[in-house]
Design brief:
The chain is an alpha/beta fold. The protein folds into 2 domains: 13-241, TIM Barrel (Alpha-Beta Barrel); 244-276, no CATH class. 38% of the residues lie in helices and 13% in strands. It is built from 11 helices and 8 strands. Strands 1-2-3-4-5-6-7-8 form an 8-stranded parallel beta barrel, surrounded by 5 helices. Helix 6 links the parallel strand 4 (117-119) and strand 5 (140-145). Helix 6 (127-135) runs parallel beside helix 8 (164-180) and helix 8 (164-180) runs parallel beside helix 9 (192-201). The longest helix is centred in the middle third of the chain and has 17 residues, at 164-180. The protein is globular, with a radius of gyration of 21 Å. It binds 3-methyl-2-oxobutanoic acid. The site of 3-methyl-2-oxobutanoic acid has 11 residues, from strand 6.
Length: 276
């Protein structure tokens, strides 16, 4: 009888790619080691999204996020997740200037985090950069539709593709990133029929967020799905827990016990009341 425990097999960029039209690809965001540990057994892909700027750091947008922040959080997630395919976002300003700048940023992410791939936002204008990275051994997850890093130019967070011309442009963007060699595509914040059309039009699996059930996979920001925020819930989010309320209840119970001198008890003290 063997006494060794098999290490979990890691989902790879290749295994995600082969899921086109197959079993839905389950994805969530993660930014920290404990959250990665909790989510890893249940997902195929963990994205260290630059949404961490808003979710963890309280910024109004993802624009202030730096490469150093993404690398620190990327490495933390890799340490906590032995089986998911881990993808790290390239932050605003780290890749738009040129394919060479994108390569330098992406190479740092790959070396310093151990992630499997990077994600970058953009359509036809980023196709050359996606190709440049893919040809040099850096797998890229594309991201089309609503692009949070371009929120100022796009006029805020709104569903895209209601206007026929805009829908055709987003479809062309998806085709361009697909042809450039992205291993998969995040499709964010588009009307449902457009999410479906994109999924049918591209060879790469699509991962929807506020897109369509027809996408090859789905992603949510974990803190949204876990109900950590009580004040704001976008239409495309389903809450699977109410952790924000739960944390409030736990903090209130702790505060009451400290104020009443019921915590710590003897069992929490060293060398008190005969306890070890
Ligand atoms: O930054 C992020 O978390 C993302 C997902 C919402 C797709 O890009």
């Amino acid at each position: 009888m063997s006494t060794t425990v098999d290490a979990p097999t890691r989902h790879t960029v290749r295994s995600i790619r082969t899921r086109k039209g197959g079993d839905p690809i389950v994805c969530l965001t993660a930014y920290t080691t404990p959250m990665a540990r909790a989510l890893d057994p249940h997902v195929d892909l963990l994205l260290v999204g630059d949404s961490l700027g808003m979710v963890l750091y309280g910024f109004d947008s993802t624009l202030p996020v730096t490469l150093e922040m993404m690398i620190a959080h990327g490495a933390a997630v890799v340490r906590g997740a032995p089986s998911a395919c881990i993808v790290v976002d390239l932050p605003f300003g780290a890749y738009q200037e040129s394919p060479e700048a994108a390569f330098r940023a992406a190479a740092r992410v790959m070396k310093e985090t151990g992630a499997a791939a990077v994600k970058l936002e953009g359509g036809a204008e980023m196709a050359a950069t996606v190709g440049f990275l893919a040809e040099r051994g850096i797998p890229v997850l594309g991201h089309v539709g609503l692009l949070p890093q371009s929120v100022n130019a796009a006029g805020g967070f709104r569903a895209h593709g209601r206007d026929a011309q805009e829908a055709e442009r987003i479809l062309a963007d998806a085709r361009a990133i697909d042809a450039a060699g992205a291993f998969a595509l995040v499709v964010e914040g588009v009307i449902e029929p457009l999410g479906r059309r994109i999924t049918e039009a591209v060879a790469a699996p699509t991962i929807g967020i506020g897109a369509s059930p027809a996408c090859d996979g789905q992603i949510l920001v974990a803190e949204d799905a876990l109900g950590l925020f009580t004040d704001f819930q976008p239409k495309f989010v389903k809450r699977y827990a109410a952790l924000g309320d739960e944390i409030g209840r736990a903090a209130a119970a702790y505060a009451a016990e400290v104020r009443a001198r019921r915590f710590p008890g003897a069992e929490h003290c060293f060398g008190a009341g005969g306890a070890a």
